[in-house]
Structures are given as structure tokens and as C-alpha cells.
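Q: Entry one of two.
A:
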Amino acid sequence: MSTPPEETQSKLPLLVLVLLYPIAMLGRRVLGIVSHTGEVFYLLQAATKWVYRGLTNKKYRLGRSAIISQMVRIGVRSIFIVMIVSGAVGLILALQLSPPLEEFGSKDKVANIIAVAVLRELGPLIGAIVLTGFAGASIAAEIGTMVVSEEIEALEAHALNPIRFLVVPRVLASTISMTILGVVSSFAAIVASMGVAITVLDIPYDTYMDNMLTQAKMVDFWTGVAKGAVFGTLIGIIACTNGLRVTGGAAGVGRATTYTVVECIVAIVVADLVFTAIFFALGLF
């Protein structure tokens, strides 16, 4: 018995909806990501414009006291936790690398691997991830609370630009702080790995230092410094963007902090991948 034409026509729209729903959801998600990325770059452009004005025009001051206070809150207070995490990673690397290298009679080469890995990658990467949780979420929550309590509108009512007075100090502070924290993180990891190598793995101090200095080059150090600066800029600008786009009261502030942590980590890893691809193509390794 054949299906009546009316029933066939009624089933077709439902079937089309079922098939197109995943595509529509994917498209909406992609458009949302593109739109949010555009917001981040727009805010970065606006912040860069205010920084340029502050450096070239005496009429527009950057507000050194605000930048320094943000550096203390973002960078100085996170030094201890960054050193703990990086030191622990350095210990782990030394202990994990020793057994396989010892099988080839190259246990002293632990210093070579750790020096390059920490200076190029792990130092700035660990510092950026710690700073994301320590300061990125805090910046987003702080600015988001100001949006909810209409303090941003109050600034605009007094002819004060929120980007100049709120975003620029935080982005500059996170960039400068992360640049320094990347170096501190690398130093802590190397010192910790050196300590366990000398005391536990019985690698002489002179051997460890000679191998490390032979393998590590200045380009490795400056690679980590450049990554730290970019990571800090990403953390600051993403946190400020999510804070400024808060809606929905306290629940919106909570969503902004969650999105900030996730987006910062994804952006940092992607930026690290781009750095690595560029340096590999240029033969800087």
C-alpha cells in the first residue's frame, strides 16, 4: 500500500529540519567565534591607538599609577604560584627524562633537553596558564561587575573613555607582567631541575652547567620572551573583551570568567603553535 501524497509532503519538512539542524548549529557556532574574534581585535586596535597617543601626545597620558597598580595585582602577586608550578615541572622533567637517557649512557644530557624545552616552550606557557587563572578571570569579573553596576555608563556620561581608563592599563600590565613572569618561570624550572639533577641523579654541577650552556642559545631565551609578551597581551585583551560584553547580571559575570579562562588557554596554545611554525620555517631552532 503506497503512502498518500499528503503524508509524504508532511514528512519532508521534518526530515529537512533534522538534516539541516546540525549544519545550522555548526554555522551559528562558527559565526559566533568569528564575531567574538572580531570584537577582540577591535578592542586591541582601540587599545593600541590609545597607547600610541599616550606615547606621542602629552595631552593623553597613559596613567602610570594605574598601570603600576595593575602590575602589582596581576604580576607581583602571581610570582610565588608561578615559581611553585614551574619548579614542580622542572623536577618532574628531570626525574622523568633520567631513566630513558640513562639507558643510552646520556643521563647528563638531561640539562640539554630541559634548557631548550623550558626556555622555548614551558617557561612562558606555564606562566601564561597560571596567569590566566590568577589574573585573567579576575580582570573579566572586575570589568563585568562594573558593566552590571552601570559604572561603565557613568564613565561615558562623564566623557571618560572606558578603553583608555580601564582596558589600556590592564592590557599593558598583563603584557609587561607576563613578559617578566615568563623569564621567572623558566628560571624556576631550570633551578629546580638542576637541584634534583645534582642531589638525586648525581650529575655534577659543572657538567650540568656546561651541557645547558652549550645547548641553550640566546635565540631560545628571546623566543620565550617574545612568547611571554604575546601571551600577556592575549590574556589582557580577551579578559577585557569578555568583561565589557557581560549581560545578565551576576550570572553573566560568571559566564564571562569561565569563557575568559577557556578562550585564553585556547588562544595561548594556538599562538604558541603559530610561533613554533614560524620559527621552524625560519630555521631559528
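Q: Entry two of two.
A:
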Amino acid sequence: MQRLLLFLLFVFIVAAVLRVDFYFTIAYLFFGVYLLARVWVRRGLKDIRIERRFVDRAFHGDSLPVRLSVRNVGRLPVTWLHARESVPVSLRQTTPRHQVFSLDPGERRDIDYALYCSKRGVYNLGPTRLQTGDVLGLIKPENFEAPPDRLIVYPKVVPLQRLGLPTRSPLATLPAPLPLFEDPARVVGVRDYAPGDSLRRIHWTASASAGTLLVKHYQPAIARETLVCLDLGYDGYHIRGRYDAIELAIVAAASIANHVVVGQRLPVGLATDAYDVWLGERTSFALPIRAERAHLMAVLEILARVNPVENAPFVELLRRQRLHLPWGTTVVAITGRDTPELLDALAQLVRAGFPAALVLTQPERMLPETARRAAMLRVPIYPLDHERDLGAWT
């Protein structure tokens, strides 16, 4: 552009000195073409609309198709347009090519590509960078950047319902001496009908045999809620293999939550102190204990958004959560490092009426006295070296 302006200035000077109309005509022609190209390009760029169509939630292992639509909504054609889409390297399956094309008024061009969701997290698709200019190259190309869209990839979920967890896992429903509630799946006998009993409780077969109304007597059970407490403090994991151990802990938390809600149709909650990638700040998460599928998706979304942080004592998290739990709630503590302080916290939970279990993602570094003390406290320990070890829980 600077060279063009110097050329026009030179032509004007020559035309003024020689007083030749032809030189003035050339100068005016070039100046008019320059102004027209500049206005055309800027106007055309303002009339470009970009739409990115995709599903903004995906599960681990999904192949996610994405369509980037570039449309010219103006009345002027765009002579050439260079579109470049930025895609996270960890999700890239097919590399979207940088495409150069022209757009007539009202025309749309689609750029299709796919992502392979191989890693949980929050990702930005984009920004999309556009560049256009005039055909003659008289002006410097104009650039435009469309904002990115966010994609959440849920952590991997291992289907525990086929791995032998229901009976001896930390999620089992335990009998209780106090009738906090009755488990309709466990009929232990019948009794005479009393005013106020629901008609659903009547045992019609036994009533017909006895000649009087009898109702089912259910076994009382402790609260069937489960709280997953996830340690995402760097101090909760040994330095060697820390990253893999933390990711494995997140997979375990997601799998347990899915098993409780989907497999057992029971409520589950999540508690953790972590860095929230979505908000860009440290956050203490305490999702209430619920059994809806929508609540499970909220749990998985939190597990997709979190990253480890410094100075997040896991013992303090357990103590905070104990103050708000219904009596009898099962607490599943997931961490990588067993400490005497952690066992003390679990012992307090057990004494307060909360069955507890410990999941260790770095079991090779477990202290010798941990197994003995955990057995005394009746706190089962579930070692987890790899995702396939989830199937060894019995």
C-alpha cells in the first residue's frame, strides 16, 4: 500500500509538471481503484457470518463431527477468502485444511472436520481466522477473527455393574438396628395390617392364606446415599506418576458415580477442592446427593472441568463434608497417598455412623500399617493401579 501511494504521488507530480491530462487520468484511475478495493474489502468482511455447529458435550472416546459454515450475507461478492480453524491438538482427528474460496452474495461454504475425544477437559474450538483482500493486491489483506466455542469432554466411565461391585463394594446397602428407612427390596416377613399402612404393602397371597390382611415387613437399612470425596490436591499424590494417578482418580470417581446412579438407582454426591478451568479460579465443589440422571451429568461435567491445586488438604475436605451428611451416608475417599491423618479422619467418619471406603490410585506406596489399621476400622481399601483394576474390586 505504501508503494502504491508513492506511485500515485509520483504520477501526480509528473502530471503537474508536464501538464499532461493523460497522466492525471492514470492517477485518478489508480486512486479510484484503490478506494474502491479498500471499501469493497472492508464491506465484504463485515458481511461475513460464521457458524460452528457441533454438540458441545461429548464422552470420552467419542468421534465428534464439526461443521464450520462461512456465509456471505451482503450484496457484494467476496473475491477471495482464506479461512483457518484452530483446533486443540489433543482432540484432532482429521486436520481441517486451510481453505481459500470465493463467496457470491448469499452463498455459504461449509468446512467439515472431526474430533476424537481422547482426553477429558474443557476445550476451545476456534478462533476462526479469516483473511481477504482485493484481486489486484493493491491493499494489505484485512483480517477477522471469530470467537471460539467451548466443548466439554466428560471423563472416561468404566461400567462397574459387570465387575462384581454390588455386594462387597463400599456402595452396598448395610442393615441397621435403627429403622431410619425400610428397604422395599428386602422383605423379612409379614405382620398384621394396622391403620395407616399403605395398600401397596399388603401381601395379598399371605392374606388370602391367613384369612386376614397382612402387610410386608421390610428390613430397616441405613441411608443409601453415597458421597464421593475426590482428592485433587498435589500433596495427596506422590510426585512420581502424579499426573496419571490424578487422572485415574477422576476416572474412578466418574465410574463410581455412574454405577450408583445408573446401576443401583441410588443418590450420589461429589465433593472436591480443585481449579475450575471453566471459571478460571479455584473452587470448592460440593454437589448435593441426588439420584437423577441430570445430576449425574452435572457430576461428570464437574469432573471434566477440574484440575489439581496446591494446598488442598484432603482431611479438611472430609471433615467439612461430615457436618452436612445424613446419618449413614457412605463416604468413598479417593486419593493417592495414605497418611495417618487420613486414617484418623476415616475413623471419625466410621465412629459417627458413616461407612467409609478408601480408593488408592498409588497403592504401591501404601504404608505398611495402613492395611492393618484400616482392617481394625472396617474401612475397605481398594487399590487402583490401572483402569482395568476396577474389575478386581470384589
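A: Comment on entry two: Residues 162-181 have pLDDT under 50 and may be disordered. Residues 181-221 form one domain.
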